[in-house]
Amino acid sequence: xDKITAHNKIRQNESEQMTSLIGMVxxxxxxxxxxxxxxxxxxxxxxxxxxxxxxxxxxxxxLLSWFNLIVLMGSSYVFSKISKIAKETTLTxxxxxxxxxxxxxxxxxxxxxxxxxxxxxxxYLMTSHQAGSIFYMASGLHGIHLFIGIFLxxxxxxxxxxxxxxxxxIKLIGLFWHFLTILWLIIFFSVIIF
Amino acid sequence: xxxxxxxxxxxxxxxxxxxxxxxKQFLWVGIFFLMFGGFQAMLIRWSLxxxxxxxPWWLLGNFLYQSSSAIGPxxxxxxxxxxxxxxxxTIMIFWxxxxxxxxxxxxxxxxxxxxxxxxxxPKLNMISFWTMFLASVVLLASYLLPMGTAAAGWTAxxxxxxPVGGIPGSxxxxxxxxxxxxxxSTLMGAINYITTIVRFRAPGMDYFKMPLTTWGLFLxxxxxxxxxxxxxxxxxxxxxxxxxxxQFLVAGNKATIPGGDPLLYQHVFWIFGHPEVYILILPAWGxxxxxxxxxxxxxxxxxxxTAICMCTITALSTVVxxxxxxxxxxxxxxxxxxxxxxxxxxxxxxxxxxxxxxTLWKGAIRFEAPMxxxxxxxxxxxxxxxxxxxxxxxxxxxxxxDTYFVVGHFHYTMAASVLFAGFAAIYFWFPKMFGKxxxxxxxxxxxxxxxxxxxxVFFNMMVxxxxxxxxxxxxxxxxxxxxxxxxxxxxxxxxxxVLGIAQVIxxxxxxxxxxxxxxxxxxxxxxxxxxxxVSQPIPHGNFLEIPxxxxxxxxxxxxxxxxxxxxxxxxxxxx
Lengths: 194, 575
Known about the structure:
The complex is a heterodimer of chains A (194) and B (575).
Chain A: H1 3-48, H2 59-88, H3 95-121, H4 130-161, H5 167-193
Chain B: H1 9-14, H2 19-49, H3 78-114, H4 122-141, H5 171-199, H6 212-243, H7 262-296, H8 303-316, H9 332-344, H10 346-360, H11 369-392, H12 394-400, H13 404-434, H14 440-466, H15 486-516
Helix pairs in contact in B: 2-3, 2-4, 2-15, 3-5, 3-6, 3-13, 4-5, 5-6, 6-7, 6-8, 7-8, 7-11, 7-13, 8-10, 11-13, 11-14, 13-14, 14-15
């Protein structure tokens, strides 16, 4: 391959990356609008309510939720390692960080299901009050998206194994992953703690 | 674009990633539902003027409403009537107009008009169509439910749309699910369209050299990407109320969980719902602006201003949703703000309406079928826009709210304008899509037999509304104050049947021309935009090489061009 075609190939590759990036940014913009509506609905129902603050989840559930928050923020930190390692060495070397992120995600979802089961056995149900409805809806919708994120990472891992992955794709999935972490921070502090 | 040549029948026609094939798939789905929803409109009209009389054979009276739950064989009862107008509205907006204008022409035209090989994300494009297909299956499945389909109106306001004192059965939940899926499909399309337009414009194709059709589709996609997620959130809240036992949107003494709020849904619905009006009309405006230029053989008057006006309207459309809710007891100050913002929209609308007239002024107008439909959009949209002023003004709206005046108004703007622009587009681009010409005589007949009865239907609806005919009443003969307009009611029904029959001509024309039509030339309308430069049939990948763009989209009758009256966007102009 002579120099010019190699140069063109890199430019074409960069152009494709930009296209994918724009697509992902629009998707995240749409997702943001989606969750803004969910959170605004929460805000309206809460402002209208007189006894919302009285409804408590119980200490165990809140404690576990704090722990889960740390798990998810940890997963975002681990994720940042993937691109760092991939840029410095090879994509194959980063595979263990991909695994760690997946494990963090799975722990988060598993613990979230556990929290739901504790709450339901304590009578904190989706149908017991508006606070419960909002909590299950917000955490459930976040969970579904996180599940998609885990699926994306598993797919990416397969691509690394087949030597088809690109460093750039980490950035795309990372945008989605970090978006979900930030979203959870908002849901955690406004719905669970506040 | 590497595997453009590897194709089996399945990957060529069914699971194709080619934007042209997906565009056609959307077109067929759209036309199917257009006929389906149109037939429901006929049933609604029959019920309104012949309440509780059995349907005649030509409205399939021997087959419909035969089950034991019906009032009598072939008779539309009040519940069935509610289901009819609900599904008519839903299908026409989300399953007919959206797939035809945005799905079909968005897919088919955007890459061709900007000089791209395909969409930015062809696979996402395919998934978008099949999500829409799944949505259609869910929607049609609701017709098989024992209690029937959704019946809470196309807006599905709670608590009517919830199980708490609302519509019985699960039709309403099917409706919500189908709409959520359709929204997901639209969103995927929007991501694709925006990215394609931002990234894949051919060299020289500046934003202000794009055809106005692409401009309209671009702005529509931006609105879709921003506002479809909002209704998706609203629908998921509604769906939870319908199936999971929550009561976010239920209040009053039937609610078992205190603190719900039905108005929350109305706000969420209209925050999306008003931009949705512009989501539908923007591509129509774009198509009409381009077609007027082609058939007047003149550049679109004030092209840049038209594009900027469309952008302004897009922005304004996001802050006016409250004008749908004047009668919900909102603060008068808020109402006035919404009224003011709504009335401001008439400024950019008037400007580009003036530009349309400017395009026609002293043009060499050719009255082909696409042009007739494009010009009729000016009439129906003009009338629809002007009657909108009465709905936007609080004082008159409080009287007109939920009457047939509103029905007439939104059918003029959304049904008539958007549908006629859709017909114009089909007549105009059919030769490029299928390589065959549509029959001209049938096209003219279709136009006149649609245009005249359509006006008779919807103008008189506004008269009925002014007389006090409420939007959703089942039996108009029950009311003393409606006695003087019952004759008009019947006249509307007869006009509607003529309008319905005219669509049969359209279907015959399409099917006949697909098989027996004359082979179309490469550029039958002598149009300047890029889609007419590709070879026929259009190869996968569209352009043999990506074109260089030199001119604007409407270079007609330019004195610099010597031997003909147009020049393609990709031909350099002789200096």
